[in-house]
Design goal:
Layout (H helix, E strand, L loop, with lengths): L37 H22 L4 H14 L1 H12 L5 H14 L3 H25 L1 H7 L5 E6 L2 E6 L8 E4 L9 E6 L1 E4 L1 H4 L5 E3 L4 E2 L4 E2 L4 E5 L7 H14 L3 H31 L4 H14 L3 H20 L2 E3 L2 H7 L4 E5 H5 E12 L5 H12 L5 H12 L8 E6 L3 E6 L2 E6 L1 H5 L9 H13 L3 E7 L3 E11 L3 H10 L3 E5 L4 H11 L3 E3 L4 H15 L2 E5 L5 H6 L2 E4 L6 H6 L2 E3 L5 H36 L5 H21 L7
Parallel strand pairs: 11-18, 11-20, 18-19, 20-21, 21-22
Antiparallel strand pairs: 1-2, 3-9, 4-7, 4-9, 5-6, 5-8, 10-22, 12-17, 13-14, 14-15, 15-16, 16-17
Helix pairs in contact: 1-2, 1-5, 2-5, 3-4, 4-5, 4-10, 5-24, 9-10, 9-11, 10-23, 10-24, 11-23, 11-24, 12-23, 14-15, 23-24
Length: about 650
């Protein structure tokens, strides 16, 4: 088959095509429409020859022209089959091409030329349809390959110029107008827009992008003008990495696939031996009619062809992996997909996994005559000078409440305690409890309320920022990392599947206990260092046999590597997450965990159905062949081609599994 040709000069693309995101079409061969394929034309010619031969043979039995037509069918449709069979014999590894070749030659030898021709034609058709069906399994991935544009508009001193993406280096500025695809990974310098990142994350809703935000090759700029500074060359883009990972994943075989391969390796020679025994014992030893048993041996040879069994597992695995990629989930190999079906425990990191990973203001309590708005105004005015995550969260809350900040002076930061500043001539403080322990603050009138609020915040695992002046407590702002909306639902679903859930976090026990109770986690492990998480993962593996670790892929890298299956959340833009985890969720969506477990169970169910159907039908046809109750037509048409197509059609259902 011809590969897609890019309309560029040879010197413009000096890099290895295998590592180029825009030329990544070479990861998969682009196939023409089925009706234009060479095999369809060849099959049609062979089919007409067979039909003509059958008509002529019916009108004039045993006519030499009919026989020549049957030979022509074999010559047209069986050219590759016989060539592959010859290579297989030279390598001393007999395969299904050998079986079909022997059956066809044997049929001609005993005067059944029409059946010998039919064997080759039907096997040829089965292979062509299997190839077409397998290509369909990869279609969702091959669609990714044409997403990144070949050229990009680059800002220059002369205005703008159009260059091939291979010629564009990091630091150059791309001009991207509404409706154009983003050609390379980079950061927005100017402009605002909505970008559809479905090709990367599987999320169909557009994402708002502004100055400083990351954008990725292959995504669609929908409605705004943006200028992007290139951060990665064409061969290093996220899209390019996804394509490489999927290609590698489809080459990696699961335990089931490896077992089937080993089985088929011994199966084929065994079948040939059984066929010879079927012929030799009755005809030469027992004295039965030799041509009858020779024919039955040929039918047995065809029936026992392991085509359906050999493809039953890989087609299902490829379908599942490509389906997952379409939904923003990268599975690095069939082994991990199969392993998910056996999982009995699932451990979650807290920050960035079960929670959003960003501090937010959750509660505000005012003391004495101060209202919540007064507390927020003073706190935001002081925190405006700081770059600390707490300061950013307070400032964000003030902005959302349309708070007018006050002018401050005498700003000081006390390391490990908090901030000090003057507002309207008065000194105010914002910080931790340590800061206030060193101050003579009168809050006796509000002592009960003060301690009650503080106790409540600590019990809920929130971070408290205390606000005061030189004489009294003004209020407390409680911050926390908000739990993902669907976390309790996912935990509930996992429990229904009898999968134990555990929380691994470096936070204190109160925070861990509060979160575990809130979302229904079975058990929590708090105040863990990275090496402690590894120890817990290894312990869970010993207890349950197979377990999953879900984390953000950065701090949790050792634990992800130690688990049977490591799943990284929100891997967009994180090279560590993609490289470390066995499965990478490109979008911050916990529901993909539920989808993965469901996909794994459906995949293994279909694999078992395919293997069972192959063995059952092949076994039944073997008995029927030995009894002489089926002929070569039925053996190939139903026992081989029909069964293979049924197996493929069943596996293709996995491409329609929804997240």
């Amino acid at each position: 088959m011809e590969r897609i040709k890019l309309n560029i000069e040879p010197e413009a693309c000096s890099r290895d095509e295998k590592t180029c995101s825009c030329c990544a079409v070479d990861f998969f061969e682009e196939k023409p429409p089925f009706w234009k394929r060479e095999k369809l034309i060849t099959g049609s010619i062979a089919g007409l020859l067979l039909l003509s031969g059958l008509i002529l043979n019916y009108l004039v039995p045993h006519h030499i022209i009919a026989l020549l037509m049957f030979v022509a069918v074999v010559a047209v449709a069986g050219r590759d089959i016989f060539r592959k069979a010859g290579r297989s014999i030279l390598k001393r590894r007999l395969d299904m091409n050998c079986l079909m070749s022997i059956a066809s030659i044997g049929a001609f030898f005993i005067g059944h030329g029409e059946e010998g021709a039919a064997v080759i034609l039907l096997f040829f058709a089965a292979e062509a349809l299997e190839e077409y069906a397998s290509d369909n399994a990869k279609r969702s991935i091959s669609q990714l390959l044409s997403l990144a544009p070949e050229t990009a508009k680059v800002k220059s001193s002369d205005g703008e110029k159009e260059l091939h993406v291979h010629e564009i280096g990091t630091g150059e500025i791309l001009i991207i107008r509404p409706g154009e695809k983003i050609p390379l990974d980079g950061k927005v310098l100017t402009g605002r827009s909505s970008v559809n990142e479905a090709t990367i994350t599987g999320e169909s809703l557009p994402v708002d992008k502004m100055e400083g935000d990351e954008v990725y090759a292959g995504t669609m700029n929908e409605d705004g003008y943006i200028e992007v500074e290139v951060e990665k060359k064409s061969e290093d883009t996220l899209l390019s990495k996804i394509i490489k990972l999927v290609e590698e994943a489809e080459r990696k075989k699961s335990k089931t696939e490896k077992f089937i391969d080993r089985f088929a390796r011994y199966y084929t020679p065994s079948v040939i031996g059984l066929s010879f025994a079927t012929f030799l014992i009755p005809s030469l030893i027992l004295g039965y009619q030799w041509d009858v048993w020779f024919y039955r041996a040929l039918v047995l040879l065809v029936v026992s062809c392991p085509c359906a069994l050999a493809i039953s597992t890989p087609v299902a695995m490829v379908s599942a992996i490509t389906s997952a990629t379409k939904h923003g989930v990268l599975i690095k190999g069939a082994t991990f997909l199969e392993e998910l079906n056996r999982v009995k425990a699932c451990a979650f990191d807290k920050t960035g996994t079960l929670t959003r990973g960003k501090l937010e203001v959750l509660d505000i309590a005012g003391f004495n005559q101060y209202s919540q708005r007064d507390v927020l105004t003073i706190a935001a005015s002081i925190e405006a000078r700081s770059e600390h995550p707490i300061a950013k969260a307070v400032s964000k809350k003030a902005k959302s409440e349309n708070i007018q900040l006050k002018d401050i002076s005498g700003f000081k930061a006390q390391k490990g305690k908090g901030l000090e500043a003057q507002i309207d001539g008065k000194t105010y403080y914002a910080g931790s409890r340590n800061l206030f322990e060193g101050l003579s603050i009168k809050h006796s009138a509000e002592a009960a309320s003060y301690h009650e609020e503080l106790s409540r915040f600590e019990t809920e695992g929130k971070t408290a920022v205390f606000i005061s002046n030189e004489t009294e407590a003004i209020g407390v702002i409680a911050l926390g990392d908000r739990v993902r909306d669907n976390a309790p639902v996912i935990i509930s679903h996992l429990k229904k599947l009898n999968i134990r859930t555990e929380l691994l976090t470096g936070d204190n026990k109160k925070v861990a206990a509060s979160l575990a109770e809130k979302i229904g986690i079975d058990e929590y492990h708090a105040e863990l260092l990275p090496e402690d998480k590894v120890r817990v993962v290894e312990s869970l593996t010993k207890r349950f046999g197979s377990m999953v670790m879900v984390g953000d892929g950065v701090n949790d890298a050792p634990a992800l590597a130690a688990a049977n299956v490591g799943i990284a959340m929100g891997a967009v833009g994180s090279d560590v997450a993609i490289e470390t985890a066995d499965i990478a969720l490109m979008h911050d969506d916990l529901s993909r965990i539920d989808y993965l477990i469901s996909l794994s169970k459906k995949t293994m169910r279909i694999v078992k159905q395919n293997v069972a159907a192959s063995i059952l039908i092949k076994g039944s046809f073997t008995v029927l062949a030995a009894l002489g109750l089926i002929n070569l037509w039925v053996a190939v048409g139903i026992g081989d081609m029909g069964l293979s197509l049924a197996v493929i059609s069943n596996a293709m259902r996995l491409t329609r599994v929804k997240a």
